[in-house]
Amino acid sequence: MTLIHRLSPLAISLLLTACATTAPPTAEPAAPAALPAPAAETPPTAAAPEAAASAPVHAAAASLLEDNLRPGEKIDLDSPEVNTDLWTRLRGGLQLEDLDDDWVRKAEAWYSARPEYVERMTSRGGLYLFHILEEVEKRGMPAELALLPFVESAFVTHAVSSAKATGMWQFMPATGRDFDLKQNIFRDDRRDVLASTRAALDYLGRLNKQFGDWHLALAAYNWGQGNVQKAIARNQRLGLPTDYASLKMPDETRYYVPKLQAVKNIVLDPDRFSLTLPPVANHPYFLSVKIERDIDVSLAAQLAGLSLDTFQQFNPQMNKPVILAAATQQVLLPYDQASAFAENLARHDGPLATWTAWVVPKTMSPGEAAKRTGMAESALREINRIPPKMLVKAGSTLLVPRGEHVHNDVSERLADTASLNLAPDGPALRRVSLRAGKADTVASVAARYRVSAGQVAQWNRVGSGARFKPGQAIVVYTAAAAPTQAARRASTRATAVAKSTRNSRPVKVAAKPAAKGRGGRNVVTAANP
Predict the structure, then answer these.
(1) What 3-state DSSP class applies to 445?
(2) Residues forming the active site
(3) Which residues form the signal peptide (predicted)?
(4) Rounded Cα–Cα distance for residues 490 and 528 (Å)
């Protein structure tokens, strides 16, 4: 049984040809000025003789295309509209009132001083800009919103901030879930090109409806709608204006919309900043290809004639080396690679997926789980990201080799709800909850409690190099013998402060912070001038 592909008439026609002759692009391809043309190199499973025999069919199909992301709409490659540079189309949809201040000048200077960075960023963005602009225009939104990923992530689909905002649109976990972006051990839809774009525009539309102003909506996207609402209320109490420029806000948010303005200014007149924008064609760069069977990511890339890095540029949502058809119903591929994928897949003789999901029946050590599944313990730990000295709790899902006797793919229920739950390995460990200090990092907390940084990161679902926000809740599992002497001194000081204030004045309890939308500080370094 093979995958079922939902392709456009173009791609179906191409299935009759051997258009699987596209050489794998580099990991960071330039945005194309036209549809990718077949190259001379033939992927291993292509049939060159058939290609020669059906060349006329390919030539006839190439003049009239249909993008299956927009069913029923035709693309005539000879039309003036399609041959217009997408930047020109984008310029015609700009609507926001311009900002002109020192913050804008600062951002312009930052980008101007980095022409190679701007070229990489805009080339990468060219892969996705047509689709994003289409979605923006369908909703009647300002075209400036299509430029927002330049500010958020420089169009790096795997971008992750220290606050765990993820993807080209930089969604925080909770906000992503609010907008139906699935996040589990198998996939993270915050990185999905189509899903995250839909969610980001839904969120921006909601914020604009709430505040009635796009600049305030953008501030709320960065800072959180609760914080913007508080800033507005403060100015109202003081009789001050409540526009974006008049609100008191952190420098990061104050700089946020000016950065977007700087990108807009560069798009309007790149020569003014001695910058060059790569041409971007005014038609789709990729097709969506529906799948109905689980398939290894590496095999899918091979069948498409793409490098693994390039395949993941279009399909960055997968957390594991297998695509589960029940959860990821389509992959995105450039036009010629889509046809190559379908054709080579039809010829493929062998298993599609070498991995499957296994639900742990009882709490056990990784070593026992490895024995049961025929894996080396080190391999099981690595692919499932299990830190040392942890047990796998009953009901957890592990990725394990798919044996020859396994014929069924992973179910939709498991693909959507799979989780990995760990417990400390040792009866003397106890759970400690604490609040982060001003300078606390994963490393400093690990040192204080004599555990590994990997364990602290796993327990708190952050990166091993992450810095905690002051007041952030932290969980540590430590021996009953208690933390280090420094930790005991800190605890003693806290107790003394509490006693000294108990009878003199009420202890001030910090208010719960407002919801922060994507929240937190975006520290994708390259994307933040």
Answers:
(1) helix
(2) 152
(3) 1-22
(4) 36
